[in-house]
Amino acid sequence: MRVKVISIPVLDQEKALQFYTNTLGFIKKQDVPVGGNNRWLTVVAKGDEDGPEVLLEPSPLHFEPARTYQHALLEAGIPYTQFDVNNVQEEYERLIALGVAFSVKPTEMGTVKIAVFDDTCGNNIQLIEML
């Protein structure tokens, strides 16, 4: 068993695609219309094109419990998911220069360093570096 796709709820798929590709540096993997204005829209890490895909899921628009859950996590400051990076401080500085808003600056916590940013799509995302 292995992870193939993880889902991140987004309020606007096109805005999410622009942020996740142009700002975070992911690469668009799949973009398939699935009815209405919805798409099966995934991105992957650059350099790991056959690795796990992140589905930019429009569920908050169509399923009230998803919208409620997403909003509750955002308001509580809880990350929806986390992305592994080699160096949290460097990634933080790169993203700050691109205008990304962080709610938690790089912080060491035992054997990890973390930072948390707003993905502009309704989610807090945590960066993590294993120390």
UniProtKB/TrEMBL annotation:
Signal peptide: none
The protein, known as: VOC family protein
Lineage: Bacteria, Pseudomonadati, Bacteroidota, Chitinophagia, Chitinophagales
Alphabetized PROSITE patterns for the sequence: VOC
Domain VOC: 2-130
InterPro entries given in the database record: Glyas_Bleomycin-R_OHBP_Dase, Glyas_Fos-R_dOase_dom, VOC_core
Matching Pfam families: Glyoxalase (PF00903)
